User: Which sequence fits this backbone?
């Protein structure tokens, strides 16, 4: 397994140590995962459906618990942390955004600050700041309901909500997967710029190689619950593993992989 | 003498029986809500137990109401002739739609919404009160609405075990073979049902709009 130069010497944000997750029936969804994610990097978990990408994310914020091995979050075993506090310190964006349909955009974005009992004025200021950050003018969008947003706008709100309490770690589960290609490309570009600027540790799940090459500082390829390898985007297409070839072949129709740089 | 002349002449008794009727319905609905809602919530993540409990409530629903009233009379503590026995039986009937709709209403809340609520660090209690229940409210209210309509109807039969209510006119009319007297009980009962249904329907719609 290859692990290209980390470049981050000041400890890891996330570390999987021989971690296995089994269903109650005993069949493993993740087998013996060893992976270290440096502070400030965007690690893409790439894989086909059922490869264990989403499961890996849910193990980080303890929506699931490892069966064997452990996960260290900024050096501390995840099981030693209070799951509620842990989740409030980790932004979480999922494919369907998961916005609360009975709340306004502003209330959705202010969710974690509210849970953390920030003063009201501070929450409001933060909500406006976050909406502007993701390109939604607050005066226009704050009081809308999620049902009055387009798919791309919903995902923007999802990102704003995940960032609201300024968590050091961001988990993103195919956040742009359900969008039309043009909206998706827009959001990918903006998100990449945002990620570079905010310096968060981001774990990004996708099955789209092009997205992985474009957004990832490193790409971890999962296949049937096993880690095939970790690659820098420039190395990925040159890798010799057959699983990588399968993914590389999926690019050929589209041609260019302009994201690899 | 037709039914409205009979009702006019006996308006004080019609009024009294209507109040009695509403009292029986109100008490039974209160009890079935107090049992059905928490029970439904408790059963949300217990699929097996939920099947059993909803199944049992279904069985209760299939017992003919007159028979259920009869069965309860000899039961110690809750039995006997009168309103309390009737309220027990009526509550048993009213629980099913409330229980079932509480379970399905919460189960039907978009799993992505619940997952993101948990993933963002809401406690199970916060997820329940701030997300699941508000989003399940229209389905919950639909259950309460069905339950109330059933309850108002079945309460007319409670007169058979001496619980009073508008059923008194119906049984009296049956005994006298006088349709006008039957109507004096049936029509106010129908009006109560329509009133309750449209009031709850209004709440249901406004909860869905939010």
Assistant:
């Amino acid at each position: 397994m290859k692990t290209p130069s980390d470049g981050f010497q000041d400890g890891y944000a996330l570390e999987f140590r021989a971690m296995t997750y089994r269903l109650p029936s005993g069949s493993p969804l993740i087998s013996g995962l060893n992976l270290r994610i440096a502070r400030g990097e965007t690690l893409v978990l790439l894989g086909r459906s059922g490869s264990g990408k989403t499961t890996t994310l849910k193990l980080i914020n303890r929506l699931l618990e490892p069966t064997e091995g452990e996960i260290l979050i900024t050096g501390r075993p995840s099981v030693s942390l209070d799951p509620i506090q842990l989740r409030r310190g980790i932004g979480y964006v999922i494919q369907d955004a998961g916005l609360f349909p009975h709340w306004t955009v502003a209330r959705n974005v202010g969710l974690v600050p509210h849970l953390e009992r920030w003063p009201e004025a501070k929450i409001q200021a933060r909500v406006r700041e976050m909406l502007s950050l993701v390109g939604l003018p607050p005066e226009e969008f704050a009081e809308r309901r999620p049902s009055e947003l387009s798919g791309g706008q919903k995902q923007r709100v999802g990102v704003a909500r995940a960032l609201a309490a300024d968590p050091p770690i961001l988990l993103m589960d195919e956040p742009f997967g359900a969008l039309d290609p043009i909206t998706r490309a827009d959001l990918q570009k903006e998100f990449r710029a945002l990620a570079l600027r905010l310096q968060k540790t981001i774990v990004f799940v996708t099955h789209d190689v092009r997205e992985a090459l474009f957004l990832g500082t490193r790409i971890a390829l999962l296949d049937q619950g096993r880690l095939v390898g970790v690659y820098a985007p420039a190395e990925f297409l040159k890798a010799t593993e057959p699983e990588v070839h399968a993914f590389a072949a999926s690019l050929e129709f589209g041609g260019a992989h302009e994201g690899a740089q | 003498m037709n039914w409205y002349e009979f009702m006019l002449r006996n308006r004080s008794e019609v009024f009294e029986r209507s109040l009695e009727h509403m009292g029986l319905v109100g008490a039974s609905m209160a009890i079935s809500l107090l049992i059905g809602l928490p029970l439904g919530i408790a059963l949300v993540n217990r699929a097996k137990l939920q099947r059993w409990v909803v199944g049992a409530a279904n069985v209760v629903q299939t017992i003919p109401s007159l028979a259920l009233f009869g069965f309860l009379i000899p039961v110690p503590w809750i039995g006997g002739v009168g309103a309390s026995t009737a309220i027990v039986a009526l509550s048993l009937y009213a629980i099913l739609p409330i229980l079932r709709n509480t379970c399905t209403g919460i189960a039907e809340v978009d799993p992505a919404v619940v997952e993101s609520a948990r993933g963002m660090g809401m406690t199970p209690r916060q997820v329940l009160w701030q997300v699941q229940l508000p989003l399940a409210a229209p389905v919950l209210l639909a259950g309460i609405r069905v339950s109330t309509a059933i309850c108002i109807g079945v309460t007319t039969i409670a007169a058979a075990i001496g619980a009073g209510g508008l059923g008194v006119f119906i049984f009296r009319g049956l005994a006298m073979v006088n349709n006008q007297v039957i109507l004096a009980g049936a029509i106010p009962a129908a009006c109560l049902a329509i009133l309750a249904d449209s009031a709850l329907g209004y709440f249901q719609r406004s909860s869905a709009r939010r």
